[in-house]
Specification:
Strand content: 25-35%
Helix content: 10-25%
Radius of gyration: 24 Å
CATH architecture of the largest domain: 3-Layer(aba) Sandwich
Protein name: S9 family peptidase
Number of domains: 2
Structural class: alpha+beta
GO molecular function: serine-type peptidase activity
Number of strands: 36
């Protein structure tokens, strides 16, 4: 059957997308079971914990979600007997829930917790208290018997201050703790220290941007660092708190083991008891390898190849969670010796007749090569006329220090199955391609990212793959900033969709939370010296240059990019009579989690593009 692009009938309805888009949040071996965290879109995005036995471990209305550093992570852990420890989304206290019992609080009210880690029966967490001035953060040990719930002094402070902390790791003999620490003046991917402490003294090991310390024995610690420009695994011998030799880099692959430390729960490698290491290597997409002591590596052919986390190990078995270019997000159990791969949760294989794997492409840009993933329109029962070129959406990820991996998803198939292509761009500043690519954006936010997405769109059109008059751009948060900045530039995109996008840099700087207080200064310049740059680059300053339709969507409870940002653009467009639509979603924060929000947003986006591009979507 022949039908114009955009009008193809599709089984990927908005409610199906909402139901098929749970987030996986870690996994663990618990006795004979495997547990994993999973969001429930139909319950407002509540994060539950499920078991391979079929049971839901954390019942409604409880939700495991941390707000430490605003982005949270590491909101639950469990012991071998099946006791769950989790951070409650509402009050940010840590709770214990034994099998068959109700949750009981382990920490006093007030502070937020995240990055939970249980080692040798001892529970550690990253703690953040924004109720005091200056704000305090640190790493604490929490008694698991509940004694500290009403006695704050019983919580042991491992380290505390105005800096930021992550990845507590206890030495096997229980006498020392290692962690990652960075000043608020830098982001952790710029500069982060590896610290060792025995409770009275501390030592900072010489690192550049350390990640995830792990003790292999009392005299050796592993960590990832990027002195060579790629995050790679290093081995450090220590005596007490003293390094007794230079750190040994044990992996020289042209790939990263690690990425931007936005959330606290990710693990990019795990040591096995026999000295081998299971690690993730990222160069656009991920691969998982087993590394020997001599640094040689063997690829594990697991479907997971995007944002993979090595969540737990038990003997030769490893739990991996993440995305895949050939399946839905999931959890896999891999035996690194036998090669057996078991799907634990999710990971439904994608149907290539409805969604072909994304093509990894490299485009020429003003600042160097631009990486992207292209998803072509595909529908097994429908095709367009031979002389018609498809419309495309250029997707811009948030962060901006983040990356996309070409993952398969029903959210992408929602567009491609209807005859609308998708180009997902890792513009300069993205992770996954080394420090030099990441630092391309330093001082150039609003310039480099815009140049790169514009170059990607032109490259797609010049190759005859997309209709140059029907290319839209869509992004959220920092991606929304690039959307609006690109529309101000003009001449490339026929429409823009901004989800909770940044419109005014000075406004963002004023409302920025602690974690990102100095982030913008690295991307644009220090205030007040660079105030003129902040004004000139802000889309709100030049909103009079936007002359194409714009769809603005915003969470009412967003504390990262408050509604005032989108509303300022809305008001300016309204004054000039530019076609636009503004939607405010009650109860949503920085990112849409509720199923009704996901459904409504997709329906509005499709209808919006239909109006702009001149097609009527199939019912």
């Amino acid at each position: 059957m022949s039908s114009p692009f955009g009008t193809w009938p599709s089984p990927f309805a908005p409610d199906l997308i909402a139901a098929s888009s749970p987030r996986i949040d870690g996994a663990a071996f618990v006795g004979e079971d495997i547990w994993w965290g999973e969001s429930v879109p139909s319950e407002g995005g509540r994060l539950t914990v499920r078991s391979s036995s079929g049971a839901e471990i954390l019942p409604a209305p409880w939700s495991a979600r941390s707000r430490v550093h605003e982005y949270g992570g590491g909101s639950w852990t469990a012991d071998a007997e099946g006791t769950l420890f989790f951070v409650d989304a509402k009050d940010q206290r840590v709770y214990r829930m034994r099998r068959g019992d109700d949750p009981v609080p382990l920490t006093p009210a007030g502070a937020a917790h995240g990055g939970l880690r249980l080692q040798n029966g001892r529970l550690f967490a990253v703690r953040e208290d924004l109720s005091v001035d200056p704000h305090q953060r640190g790493i604490v040990e929490i008694p698991t018997d509940g004694s500290a719930a009403d006695e704050p002094a019983l919580v042991t402070v491992i380290v505390q201050g105005e800096s930021f902390y992550a990845h507590p790791a206890l030495s096997p003999d229980g006498t020392r703790t290692a962690w990652v620490e960075w000043s608020g003046e830098r982001m952790p991917w710029q500069r982060a220290s590896l610290v060792l402490s025995d409770g009275t003294r501390r030592t900072e090991l010489p690192t550049r941007a350390a990640l995830q310390p792990e003790w292999t024995d009392d005299d050796e610690i592993l960590y990832s660092d990027d002195p060579s420009g790629r995050w790679a695994l290093h081995r450090q011998r220590v005596e007490g708190l003293r390094a007794v030799s230079s750190a040994e880099q044990i992996d020289d692959a042209d790939a990263d083991t690690g990425y931007g430390l936005w959330v606290l729960g990710n693990r990019w490698y795990r040591p096995l008891t026999d000295g081998r290491i299971v690690a993730v290597r990222t160069n656009g997409r991920d691969e998982v390898v087993v590394m020997e002591r001599d640094g040689s590596a063997r690829l594990i052919p697991v479907p997971a190849d995007g944002h993979v986390s090595v969540d737990d190990v038990a003997g030769s078995r490893v739990l991996l969670s993440g995305n895949s270019s050939s399946a839905a997000p999931g959890v896999w159990c891999v035996d690194v010796d036998s090669g057996d791969i078991e799907v634990v949760a999710g990971a439904t294989p994608s149907d290539p007749t409805w969604m072909r794997p994304a093509s990894e492409i490299l485009l020429d840009g003003a600042h160097g090569p631009v990486h992207a993933f292209a998803y072509e329109p595909v529908n097994p029962s429908t095709a367009a006329a031979d002389d018609e070129l498809p419309p495309y959406i250029v997707l811009v990820h948030g962060g901006p220090t983040a990356h996309v991996t070409g993952a398969a998803s029903a959210a992408i198939a929602f567009w491609t199955s209807r005859g609308i292509g998708v180009l997902d761009v890792n513009y300069g500043g993205s992770t996954g391609y080394g420090r030099a690519y990441r630092e391309r954006l330093d001082g150039g936010w609003g310039v480099v990212d815009v140049d790169d997405v514009v170059a990607a769109a032109h490259g797609l059109a010049d190759a005859g793959l997309a209709d140059p008059d029907r290319i839209a751009i869509r992004g959220g948060s920092a991606g929304g900033w690039t959307v609006l900045s690109s529309l101000v530039r003009g001449g490339t995109f026929a429409a823009g969709i901004s989800r909770y996008g940044v419109a005014d840099l000075r406004m963002l700087s004023e409302h920025s939370h602690d974690f990102e207080a100095n982030y913008i200064e690295g991307l644009v310049g220090p205030l007040p010296d660079a105030e003129a740059v902040y004004i000139d680059r802000s889309p709100l300053t030049h909103v009079d240059r936007i002359d194409v339709p714009v769809l603005l969507m915003q969470g009412a409870e967003d504390r990262v990019v408050p509604p005032s940002q989108s509303e300022a653009i809305r008001d300016a467009l309204a004054q000039r009579g530019v076609e636009h639509e503004y939607v405010l979603y009650t109860g949503e924060g920085h990112g849409f989690r509720a199923s009704e929000t996901i459904v409504d947003a997709l329906e509005r986006e499709l209808a919006f593009l239909g109006r702009v591009f001149g097609f009527t979507p199939a019912r």
